[in-house]
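Page 42, continued from yesterday. The earlier attempt failed because a stray header line got pasted into the input along with the sequence. Redoing it now with the clean sequence only.
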Amino acid sequence: MWRRWGFFRQFKLNVIQLARLRSEPDAIGRGMALGLFVGFTPTFGVQLFLVILLAFLLRQNKIASFVGVWVTNPLTAPLIYGLEYKIGRLLLGMPHLSADPFGDGLSWSLGAQVGAPLLIGSVVLGIPVAVIGYSMTVRLIPSLRQWKIPRWPRRRKSLEK
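This time it went through. Structure tokens are written below.
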């Protein structure tokens, strides 16, 4: 039953894609680190375009960076961005956000109260995650290349017509 879930299938396909890259583990690790760092930035709508552009400009592995940016997906984004906001708010010494729901709506000061902590928190969390992702990728790629990954069994169509 768990094989029907698209998340597990996508994860397996990403691992297979990383294992089959014909680059050195160091180059794959640098691309993964770039993807993880961009994945932690508060650019949720344009992360894929941003990581491909940066990988092209910095001459990093584009597939590995594309796979790394998927660290923020609709399931993990609320957790990651909430943690980034809390860390950034603590580092900047800002109080909890208190917006008047019946006030004049969103303003620039409200955007600064949310944007600045998110940006600081994303850098503070993104750098260690990128370093850890680089080191794990460099160590795992040689063993993944030797591992024979089986195909998923396909459903057999019935012979009745």
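Notes: DSSP finds six helices and no strands in the chain.
Reminder to self: strip header lines before submitting.
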